[in-house]
Each structure stands twice: as structure tokens, then as C-alpha cells.
Amino acid sequence: MTHSAHAEPTNFVAAFSDPAAAARYADGPPRFVPGFEALHRMTGILLAEHAPADARVLVLGAGGGLELRALAEAHPGWTFVGVDPAREMLRQAERTLGSLMDRVTLVEGYIDDAPDGPFDAATCLLTLHFLDPAAREDTVRAIHRRLKPGAPFVAAHGSFPQDDSRSRWIARYEAYAVASGVDGEQAAKARSAVQAHLHTLAPETDAVVLRAGGFRDVELFFAAFTWRGWIGRA
Questions:
Q1: What mean pLDDT comes out for the span 58-87?
Q2: Fewer Cβ within 10 Å of end Cβ, the chain: N or C?
Q3: Domains and CATH numbers, the chain
């Protein structure tokens, strides 16, 4: 196991290990991430630009199964390996996927627990912000190592300016959640967790991490308040 294997903050892992929280997970991301469903749709389109019709796709941070379901429904020839450290979230993924599970293998753990591949494509959505910069680069490099040459990789996570405007952006994150129906106290707790525990970087730094991890042709394709998404190729 490399440094990345233990890099996710324990408070977030503990939260995702709670069965009740895992069962409620599907309600959360659409209320906190503007364009959540569109992000999944765009991810499938971007991967399909270079991935074959029978692609084998690595999904890191797959717990809950929402992006697995979206990708599997949009691309019936694809098969998937989904990796996540939280067992309850993987159980929730099984429930979310239902009959689609016949095209999905779930692995409990981190990137170092994933098969070596080579994979035709990979995604890491709403996950890399849990890792400090060194662990993030290690993880990106480990994803790259598992991909075929030229294979596409989509990453999307919390990424916004880390200068004097940082607190203003986090306030907007909270305000969006409240406007989407999240209880004010819950939104405030989420804001505090982001402020204290997430390893958010500036978007330009995130792009540098992806390039340092081995990816080329890195392009920003998604920007919504405190969220960014990139496409790159191995």
C-alpha cells in the first residue's frame, strides 16, 4: 500500500461507513453539486470520444453507485470496476445498480487495491478533494498506470480559488445547498467540514497535479461554483 491508501480523512470515511448515511447518499450530491446529473452525462460523452464500445472502465470513489448507474445505462457495452473504501457505500451501490451489477465488479479499498488493468477509461468524481496534494498526485499516477496509452480520464471535485476569496466561495457552496432544499443547520455543518477538512486546491493547481500524474491534453470542461471537472488522456 502506498501513501495514498490511507490518505482519506477518517471523519469522512466514518461518515460514509454509516448505513443510514449511505442509504441517504443519493439525495445529497444533487443538492450540493450544481449540474450533478449533467456532470455524469458529460463524463460519459467525454469517455466515449476515445473509449471503445466494449470499454472496461475504472471508477475510483464509486460508492453509492450513481455515476456507475449513469454510465452503465448510457453505454450498454461497457463493463466497470468500481473502487471505494466504505463498505456501506458499496452496498448502496449494489442497490442503486440492481440488474446493472452484472457488468460491475466492486472492490473495497483505495486505488492500490484496484486491478492493474489495463483499462480503456477511468473516472474519479467527487473524490480527489479528500486527498492532500502529495497523495492526490500519487493516486492520479496510479490511475494513469492502469490505463491503456491514450485512454481518457475524467476527474471532478471541489476546486476553487484558495486566495482571499476562499471563504466567499465556500459561503456560495453553502448557499447553493440551502437553495436546493438542504436544511440550514446541515448545510452549515457541511460548510464547516469543507473549510476544515477538505484538501481543496486552486483549479490551476489541480490541472498541474493531473499533468504531473502523467496525463496530457488536460482540459477543463466543468465549472460550477466550488466544483471543477477535467478531461485528460493517458
A1: 96
A2: N
A3: 11-159+201-233 (3.40.50.150)
